[in-house]
Amino acid sequence: MEYRQLGKSGLKVPALCFGAGTLGTSGQFFEAWASTSDQEADKIVGICMDAGLNFFDTADVYSEGGSETALGKALAKYKREDVLISTKATFRFGDGPNDTGSSRYHLTQALHGSLKRLGTDYVDVYHLHAFDALTPVEETLNTLDKFVREGKVRYIACSNFSGWHLMKSLSVSERYGWARYIGHQVYYSLVGRDYEWELMPLALDQGVGALVWSPLGWGRLTGKYRRGTGIPKESRLNEKSVMDAGPQVPEEHLYTVVDALDAVAAETGKTVPQIALNWLLSRPTVSTLIIGARNEEQLQANLGAIGWKLTEAQIAKLDAASVLPKAYPYWHQVQFEERNPSPV
User: Fold this and answer.
1) Do the domain assignments include residue 344?
2) Helix or strand or coil: residue 66?
3) Is the predicted pLDDT of residue 13 greater than 60, yes or no?
4) Residue 124 sits in which domain range?
5) Are 321 and 313 within 8 A, CB to CB?
6) For 242-269, how does the pLDDT look when each residue is reduced to its tens digit (9 = 90+)?
7) Which whole-number Å values give the CA distances from 96 to 14, 27, 106, in the listed order?
8) What is the count of structural domains for the chain?
9) Residue 45 to residue 42: CA distance in whole angstroms
10) Does residue 242 form part of some domain?
11) Domain CATH code at residue 72
């Protein structure tokens, strides 16, 4: 297993992180992803640990806490110091007016709930799942800094922030000497490269590592999608709630990218998803890819994405197939690349 620094911190994480959203599943949205039994969860976690993949990501809202509970059970047999656990808060968890957001009230309640479900007294990486525009940034970051000082959280990170959300937060942390975000959990894939426009340059400048969620484009780069075949019957994208909640990808663009992946697959002998994951690992700022797996077979296949590298020509082929027109002001900025170079 390859290990990388998580942003501008001293923490090293494996290049692949296991996304535990398929564990303890309940509810229409998460059951559309998969439902993994406790026995299968134990087996999957064991394979991860044997492969050196000791980083596990979950969230309080995944199956209403069921994912955290199942992950905690599966990890109970291992020494706590041998495992890295990431979880998240901010989204609604309860019916009360204060059961949502990044206020001191809700984050304190959320962290204590997560620790109890996970069966641990600290979390290695604690994410804000989204930006809360109604809570002062100072209140949020002071609360997170308190968690770090108390030893309940080792490092803090965020997820799904815009550029100004992240930069304002980093500025406030610097002003007061509080813990700063060392990671940003982001959507990034060969069919979703918006991250490169502003968030990647910011991450390079500020030393924020990317933890990539849905690196296979919300399931579109599994190798099952081909021109003329449509969405496979077993795909979670047949569930409207899943389709609507994820990134939207123009059909023709998807097939153009898949054609390029097929060409590289023929050259390398690797699978389409392995190539898509390996391409991401070649990008600046990427610290780890959060991979999911319904079963042992899927997990072993994803583990095959590391230990080898694409050639420069193969990367260029994939870059060319996956590029899309940029929104303003990014399309204007690329015309002045002499003084505003692309991060990639």
Assistant:
1) no
2) helix
3) yes
4) 11-336
5) no
6) 777 788 898 999 999 999 999 999 999 9
7) 38, 20, 10
8) 1
9) 5
10) yes
11) 3.20.20.100
Exposed, middle or buried: residue 330 (CB in 10 Å: 0-12, 13-18, 19+)?
middle
Helix (H) or strand (E) holding 30: helix 28-31
| Residue 221 domain-assigned (yes or no) | yes
62 flagged as catalytic: yes
Cβ atoms within 10 Å of 5's Cβ, excluding its own: 14
pLDDT digits (tens, 9 = 90+) for 178-219: 999 999 999 999 999 999 999 999 999 999 999 999 999 998
Asked whether residue 6 is assigned to any structural domain, the reply reads no
Which residues have a Cβ under 8 Å from the Cβ of 286 and sit 6 or more positions away? Answer: 4, 188, 209, 210, 212, 280
Q: 66 and 38 in contact (C-beta within 8 Å)?
A: no
Q: Could you tell me which residues come within 8 angstroms of residue 70 by beta carbon, excluding any fewer than 6 positions away? A: 20, 23, 24, 36, 38, 41
Instruction: Give me the catalytic one of 3, 62, 155, 328.
Output: 62
CA distance 277 to 266: 16
Joined tokens for residue 332? 């204007």
Q: Which helix (H) or strand (E) holds 4?
A: strand 3-5
Q: How far is CA 69 from CA 60, 91, 117, 155, 176, in A?
A: 9, 18, 5, 21, 35
What are the distances in angstroms from CA 87 to CA 77, 136, 334? 19, 22, 36
Query: Which pLDDT band holds residue 82 (cuts at 50, 70, 90)?
Result: very high
Residue 181 and residue 7: Cα distance in Å, rounded? Answer: 9
